[in-house]
Design brief:
Structural class: mainly beta
Largest sheet: 7 strands, mixed
Number of helices: 0
Number of strands: 11
Radius of gyration: 14 Å
Shape: globular
Length: about 130
């Protein structure tokens, strides 16, 4: 089974940037749908975006981060990235990556229970 590990979180001022990494072992991420989620204190885990399986890797991001965040994958190094620019205090959360082989469509792909493999999370804190 695939094992995931996030890294790259930290403390940044509003307007700054961070790049999160989701490194995989035990399986090729190009074979999985990989999603990014975040969970702020006292809040439910929420979907941020995903990258599809396959060499091309079509991506999807929720409206609140479109234009600021991008998702990409380095197939050679088996890593998925979440590039976060123009960060806002409301982006503060623990960020998780999840991977799944399950099929889905539309909003069904945004459900956390779809994802079978998770990393431990990485903290992102944006100060105002």
């Amino acid at each position: 089974q695939v094992r995931l590990a996030e890294s790259g979180g930290g403390l940044v001022q509003a307007g700054g940037s961070l790049r999160l990494s989701c490194a995989a072992s035990g399986g090729a991420l190009s074979n999985y749908r990989t999603g990014w989620f975040r969970q702020a204190p006292g809040m439910e885990r929420e979907f941020v975006g995903l990258i599809m399986w396959g060499l091309g890797g079509r991506t999807y991001l929720v409206d609140s981060v479109k234009g600021r965040f991008t998702i990409s994958r380095d197939n050679a190094n088996n890593v998925v990235f979440l590039q976060m620019n123009n960060l806002k205090p409301e982006d503060t959360a623990v960020y998780f990556c999840g991977a799944t082989l399950r099929t889905c469509s539309g909003n069904g792909c945004q459900v956390g229970s779809l994802y079978d493999y998770w990393g431990q999370g990485t903290q992102v804190t944006v100060s105002s």
